[in-house]
Amino acid sequence: MRGLTSAQADDIRQALALAERRSGLRFGAFLGAPVGGRRHFAERLHAALGDEADKAVVIFVDVAGRALEIVTGESARRRLPDSACRMTAMSMATAFSVGDLVGGLLYGIGTLGEQAIARR
């Protein structure tokens, strides 16, 4: 997680691990520039999870491009519909717009994890 302090990266890793443990879904985050189109790149990151992709949620943040993508696998989407991801992304983008990258990520990971638990 380039561009973050080690403490910030640890906080994000802990949030991902907690969301995974509590929801049973696989969570991942990637911060950086896409290779090609943003959505296509985020979908390739998700597909790279192989057998885990069906139950996975990938959050891709293009910091320099000021963009965010959330990709869910088929099983994960039953618990995290597009509307829930869209609302979470809007809140994350608000935090990002005022310079709070880590806070936005932590909020998004936590919110998606909680929503997945509630829809078990």
UniProtKB/TrEMBL annotation:
Q: What is this protein called?
A: DUF5130 family protein
Q: Which organism is this protein's natural source? A: Nonomuraea guangzhouensis
